Amino acid sequence: MLKMIALTITLIAFTAINAMADSIAGRLGVTARMGATLPLDDDMIKGTSDTDAGFAAGGGLIYGFSEHVAVDVEAFHMPQLDVHANGVKTYEASITDLSLGLQFRFLNETRLVPYFGFGPDFITGDLDHVNGTGYKMDWTYGGHVNLGLDWFITPGIAMTADVRGVYAVEGDIQTGSTTVSEYQPKWFMGTVGVRLMLPEKF
């Protein structure tokens, strides 16, 4: 029994040492996330009074150019943000955010790797009135800044947490080819998830 305990401790320690020593330089990874989005502007949909926070999920790819610099491409989807007018739910917004990011990572002697980043965002969506009328939220663009933390359980698996702020210019809300209103994405997004890093370096 004591030998089994000693072997288990040795394996855990060996895994930890490898996780501490490794980096994502030259490696491709896949990220999956889920969390929540909190709109910063009550009038995100022009002419309304309030947009609720909502569920967000997404993921993408990350590639490490070095121990300290990486790029990521991620897509986030918010399937339902309730929109109120005069305190009454009037619309449901469904929004997709395509994000490109440059990431600066702080590799150290622990399994925790903090990072910050920024980059452009491209946003679109749909807006459905409670009476069944549907509108298209045309593409708009903006950018984000984010802070995050990766915790490497093994050299190839990391739990990740990320907080970002997104700001975009006004986009059109259309029915057919007619513009009926505008929207302006501004929100905080907090997510947790997992990264799977491929073992081979490119």
Integer count of domains: 1
On the 0 to 100 scale, the average pLDDT is: 89
- Report the principal-axis shape: elongated
Stretches where pLDDT is under 50 for at least 5 consecutive residues are 1-19
CATH topology name? Porin
Characterise the protein shown here:
The protein is 10% helix and 66% strand. With 202 residues, the chain is mainly β. It has one domain (2-197): Porin, CATH 2.40.160. Strands 1-3-4-5-6-7-8-11 form an 8-stranded antiparallel beta barrel. The longest helix has 20 residues, at 2-21.
Write the layout of secondary structure elements.
Blueprint: H1 2-21, E1 28-39, E2 50-51, E3 54-64, E4 69-85, E5 88-105, E6 112-129, E7 134-154, E8 157-168, E9 171-175, E10 178-183, E11 186-197
What is shown here, in short?
With 202 residues, the protein is mainly beta. It is built from one helix and eleven strands; from the N terminus they run H-E-E-E-E-E-E-E-E-E-E-E.
Notable traits:
1 helix, disordered N terminus, eight-stranded antiparallel barrel, elongated, 202 residues, mainly beta, Porin
